Amino acid sequence: MKKLFCALLTCVCLNASAATDFDKWFGILKQDPVGTTYGITSKKDGSFVVKTPIKTFEVKKTAKNTYEVLGMTVGVKKNYSHTYTFTTPLGTWKVNTRKATVTKTEK
Fold it and tell me: How many structural domains is the chain composed of?
């Protein structure tokens, strides 16, 4: 799935350097240690924007308990009051919209 996603993104990119930058960023996110925390910069209608040191990306709510992250559709594994847990190929992430944080919980 990662290869397919990277291939689709490469087609969208206008130049090779943008694709290289994204591959580097994707690899860094995947290699992040458990406990790494990023901040949420804005929230609106169940969607939110996450800021990492390299890139800012949006997590869009597409349907009930379904979100789109970096072109991947992921379901919510656990859902508590203002706290969501997602499992992606990049690892398992806990989102706390009240505290405005995103924390990696598993690789």
Answer: 1
